[in-house]
Amino acid sequence: MARQLSALDAQFLNFETSSNLAHIAGLAVLDPSTAPGGEVTRAALIELIKERAHLAPPLRRRLVQVPFRLDHPYWVEDREIDFDYHVREIALPRPGDDHQLGEQVARLHSRRLDRRRPLWELYLIHGLSGGRIAVYTKVHHSAIDGVTGAEVLAALMDLGPEPRRETPPPESEPDTPPETVEMIVRGVGRVLENPGAAVRFLAGVMPRLDEIPVVSQIPGTGLVSRVVRGIGAEPLPGLPRMTVPRTPFSGPISPHRRFAFGTLPLADVKRIKNAFGVTVNDVVLSLCATALRRWLVQRDELPREPLVAGIPISSRGLTEGDIPANEVVLAMATLPTDVADPGERLRGVSRSMKTVKDRYAAAPATWLLEFSEAMPAALSGLADRAAFRIASRTASAMNLMVSNVPGPQFPLYMCGARLLAHYPVSVITDVSGGINITVFSYDGSLDVGIVVDRDMVPDVWDFIDYLRDALDELSRTNP
User: Any idea what the Cα angle at residue 467 is, between residues 293 and 285, rounded to 5°?
Assistant: First the structure.
């Protein structure tokens, strides 16, 4: 039987517009000198994906919609994937520097995926300086989250230049969606069940209103949550009310992107972590706060209040049949951009994240999943888009998104070519703001990818320099 999308998976489809795109991607930069013949070809990549597609389910699934959109779509296995369509090949003009690569990736990242096909594309990019090549791969967020994205990467990688041989399992009966009549009956049944789901959701969410982006900005929300918790509903630690200040990257975004990338030494980050008694993630967030502060100061746009960052946290489980589910909750934390001292800025980040951890340790945050399931599928698409429009034009939910994804600390190879770095290319939206900073740790480095709205942040490469300067500054700061 085909797998049905969860309500949260479907939300990533529902909110997508010409400017709010919901795919995530990775930019692998490779040294082809270790590959056969010193090169990686498009044909070799297609053969690799064909051989290992069974290890990466998101690459072989396509969507099947329910009639009248009465229910969430289904994933079915596509037995006739057009690899000539999905795997493409381009080249940069001379000199093929990192800025040109970033500009090309930004253009590719600004294009929607075709929903009639499996929701992924891969680009082999030639012409990089120093004899390097790059592979840009994007997959729709409805199919993967940050963790499953890393697993797709691992399926295509090897531990040495010699590719491992994978034997695909014997072909089974293709998974097919329910018949049209059955899908309609199921959809109607879900609509009839939803009033009960909504009641259960409201009972569970009232103590946690102060966690919900946008809603938490409404005056009195924190008081309601505290009162409900005080009468014994749920013994949860309180959260401070966060005011989301306006910045040049707040508000509705355009369809166009810019992308910059760079690498920070993980060893230096760990030395700072040990010296201050904090976590690697605390240091990463502090570096981001410092870079943002410098960018805003230089434009005379620094708010008096700290910025508010949305930090995705995976609560990923396994759906029936051991198929990874897209389960992400969003923690909100302050970035003390209003603090001038770098050491105090790091300690402020650590305190903010401790508050978040204490709250989620007391009870996992599943309100988004519960809210999604409580909404009838036939209405959820309209509701998701309406919520995005209202939130982007009224109370901002956050200033930006920051994510830190752990990766392997040893070399990897693709088609025999050594992976030099893997830069995340993530999502910006009207609600989350015009900047997304995502970090992926790999082989002793932190690979940073920054996606921005092209009009809001035209000078995105400055952030890479500011992050490196911030790391040097913290290295010289006494705890």
Answer: 70
Residue type, 52: R
* Residue among 464, 466, 455 at smallest CA distance from 250: 455
CA atoms of 78 and 60, how far apart (whole Å): 6
Say if residues 22 and 140 touch (Cβ distance below 8 Å): yes
Contact partners, residue 428, CB within 8 Å, separation at least 6: 253, 257, 401, 434, 435, 436, 451, 452, 453
Give the predicted TM-score (pTM) of the model: 0.86
CB atoms within 10 A of CB 272: 22
Mean pLDDT of 380-390: 54
Element (H, E) at 404: strand 400-405
Structure tokens at 427: 């999502």
Q: What are the helix (H) ranges across 364-413?
A: 367-374, 377-393
Q: What is the pLDDT of residues 255-274, one digit of tens each?
A: 999 999 999 999 999 999 99
On whether the CB atoms of residues 75 and 61 are closer than 8 A, the answer is yes
| Bridge partners, 60 (sequence order) | none
- What are residue 90's DSSP bridge partners? 125
Catalytic amino acids? 141
pLDDT band at 212 (very low <50, low <70, confident <90, very high): low
pLDDT at 326 exceeding the cut of 70? no
Which pairing describes strands 413-414 and 417-425: parallel, antiparallel, or unpaired? antiparallel
pLDDT exceeds cutoff 90 at 246? yes
DSSP letter, residue 54:
G
Which residue has tokens 């918790």? 229
CA 183 to chain centre: 31
- Check if the beta carbon of residue 384 is closer than 8 Å to that of residue 14: yes
Residue 318: the pLDDT is 38
Q: Do strands 435-442 and 413-414 pair parallel, antiparallel, or not at all (unpaired)? A: unpaired
Beta bridge partners of 257: 453
Q: 430 near 171, Cβ under 8 Å?
A: no
User: In Å, how far from its chain's centre is CA 358?
Assistant: 23
The mean pLDDT of 337-358, rounded to a whole number, is: 93
pLDDT computed for residue 317 by the predictor:
46
The confidence band for 152, taking pLDDT boundaries of 50, 70 and 90, is confident
Indicate the DSSP class of residue 433.
Answer: B
